[in-house]
Amino acid sequence: QAYLSYSNVAALTHLAAKPGWEITRTLDNIKIWTHEEGDVLSFKVEMQVKVPPHQAFCLLSDFTLRQQWDKHFLTCEVLQDVSEEEKIYYVTSPPATGLKPRDFVILVSQRQPCKPREPYTVAVRSVTLRAVPPSPQLSRSEILCAGFQIHTTSSSSCTVCYFNQVTPGVMPYWAANLAGSSKSIEDTALECVRFLE
Fold first, then answer.
1. pLDDT tens string 79-103
2. Which residues does 44 contact at the CB level (< 8 Å), separation at least 6?
3. Which domain holds residue 124?
């Protein structure tokens, strides 16, 4: 468990630090970047938010609040409080066109900065729990690496970066319409900023 938590945070930190991110869209206070490596597509959404960084961290690390701003979350429940910094959640998502609704079992690891200039981190990855086997009514999906880094810009504002590494399995969901998908990412980012502020 300790290894999973450590590797969850390390994977997000590694993804964020990768060279080669390309900016694909810029809105007023939102930028969308992509990164391709082999058959893995990652994206980063950078949002300028007018709330203190610790407040953004508290709101974003509680995934039961996610339905308030992210329409990709139909339901979200805590399965296990692993520690103060780790929780396992069960999430269901609406189906992509004509497919079954999707579900996820995810580990969410939250970390406060150890040093000034380090970001707050909320890392997400799929895990397997015997107590929650896949169901025939739902399509069990996997998150390789996702999450948030929250960088302090001032005592009352921060930059929130959301990362997601998309596997080939989830690709049709995004590739179905990449222009539409960036619109969907934009809409979700705008909802996120609205929710935080």
1. 999 999 999 999 999 887 667 888 9
2. 16, 21, 32, 33, 34, 35, 161, 162, 163
3. 1-196
Sign, Cα dihedral of 187, 66, 7, 125: negative
- C-beta separation of 157 from 48 below 8 A: yes
Q: Which of 11, 25, 19 is nearest to 147 (CA)?
A: 11
CATH number at residue 9: 3.30.530.20
Helix H or strand E segment including 187: helix 178-196
Q: What is the pLDDT of residues 141-153, one digit of tens each?
A: 888 899 999 999 9
Q: Looking at the 3D structure of the chain, how many domains does it have?
A: 1
pTM of the model: 0.90
Q: What is the pLDDT of residues 9-22, one digit of tens each?
A: 999 999 999 999 99
